[in-house]
Design goal:
Blueprint: H1 2-19, H2 28-33, E1 36-38, E2 42-44, E3 47-54, E4 74-75, H3 76-82, E5 85-94, E6 97-102, E7 108-110, E8 114-118, E9 123-125, E10 129-131, E11 138-144, E12 157-163, H4 166-175, H5 178-192, H6 203-206, H7 208-221, E13 230-237, E14 240-247, H8 250-268, H9 278-289, E15 292-296, E16 303-309, E17 312-327, E18 330-347
Parallel strand pairs: 4-7
Antiparallel strand pairs: 1-3, 2-3, 3-13, 5-6, 6-11, 7-10, 8-9, 8-12, 9-11, 13-14, 14-18, 15-16, 16-17, 17-18
Helix pairs in contact: 4-5, 7-8
Length: 369
């Protein structure tokens, strides 16, 4: 009898959970940063990188599982190697749209700023997209990063295993302007003395001097082992915070780490040693947490939000799930949660004076770096 009553209670609770309204969309960034702690930075030459730790919350009502137990998604690079992903021009070719199909059995995460090469011209992805398993052909927004070519060099695209340089990624989210993206690529190539026949952004990484410097940064930063609760970083150079990146898990951060270092290093080439301190990081996170968030359309799974505030521009992709928990006499209940897949943010200006007050605190973890 007790087992029957227990099963009945659980069934009723599950039914109620399914009837719950959609989670509020007002404070998605707030949720993502609610349990974040800023750690001790790592530094090499012009890059200083602050790790962001996820703190584990446990109380009598619910348990938020450690991030290692959250979902790890297949990346674009992994899916390409497995032969799951097909990407081609839409019709005879549209500059700011390509079409993609996931033939694989698992969801695939495609991030804003990732470069796809081939077809009529190289592109960079405009928005984070979580492709469902065994998807149909899906149109996705892109920006051209190869101004001087409009002819086929291959039937379709492949992953270039690169992000666009950090400043180009910023232009994509901040301006949403193709001409601004081309202008930024041209500016970077001019600074480095790069003569690119087709003006492809990939040549920024192939230039011999740049290539050697990137190898240096990779050598010193690629093998750094963050604590297992590290799910994001804040990247600084000179008097600027240039990027905030957060992922669902430490493992997902690791999958993109080498690619991100290359992207950030292009910014570091034209900068100086970082002057940014921990309180500047906390001020920025506070601003992001309280920024305006706009739910925008996504061709994939989950919900995508644009983050806008005077301090900069970003985006955050979330999925909604039911999380199992124990509560009182109910042995296995569930409640709806929204989980971060990826958040990125690009500050709009150089170092500002720190605020005198802060609505939230980001205490350093006492026992981890």
């Amino acid at each position: 009898m007790k087992r029957i009553i227990k099963t009945l209670h659980r069934s009723i609770f599950l039914a109620l959970c399914m009837l719950m309204p959609t989670l509020s969309e007002a404070k998605t960034a707030y949720e993502a940063l609610e349990l974040i702690s800023v750690g001790t930075p790592i530094e090499y030459k012009n890059l200083k990188i602050y790790p962001l730790y996820h703190l584990i919350l446990k109380n009598s009502d619910k348990v938020l599982l450690p991030h290692e137990q959250y979902k790890n998604y297949v990346t674009l690079d992994q899916a390409s190697k497995k032969g799951w992903i097909a990407i081609k021009e839409k019709g005879s070719g549209i500059v700011n749209t390509v079409t993609v199909k996931n033939n694989g059995p698992r969801e695939v995460l495609v991030l804003s700023g990732e470069i796809i090469s081939g077809a009529k011209q190289d592109r960079t992805v405009a928005k984070d997209i979580l492709l469902p398993a065994h998807s149909e052909w899906t149109d996705i927004p892109v920006f051209c990063v190869e101004h001087g070519r409009w002819h086929h060099v291959s039937p379709g695209f492949k992953s270039a295993n690169m992000f666009a340089p950090n400043s180009v990624r910023k232009k994509v989210l901040e301006t949403k302007s193709q001409s601004e993206v081309w202008s930024e690529i041209s500016s970077l190539q001019s600074k480095s003395g790069i003569q690119s026949e087709t003006q492809t952004v990939l040549d920024n990484y192939k230039h011999s001097d740049t290539k050697n410097i990137i190898k240096e940064y990779e050598k010193h930063l690629s093998f750094y082992r963050f604590h297992s609760n590290t799910i994001g970083v804040v990247v600084t150079t000179g008097d600027r915070i240039i990027s905030v990146e957060m992922f669902s898990t430490n493992k997902m951060l690791g999958k993109y780490w080498s690619k991100l270092i290359k992207s950030w290093t292009i910014d570091a080439l034209y900068s100086k040693r970082s002057k940014i301190e921990r309180h500047h990081i906390c001020d920025l996170l506070d601003a992001i947490k309280n920024a305006d968030q706009i739910n925008v359309a996504t061709p994939g799974l989950g919900k995508l939000f644009e983050i806008e505030c005077p301090e900069g521009t970003g985006s955050a992709l979330f999925v909604e799930e039911l999380l199992a928990s124990s509560r009182h006499h109910l042995s296995s209940c569930v409640f709806p949660v929204r989980r971060l897949v990826h958040l990125n943010f690009f500050p709009s200006y150089a170092l500002a004076k720190p605020k005198l007050t802060r609505t939230i605190l980001y205490p350093p973890p006492p026992s981890i770096r």
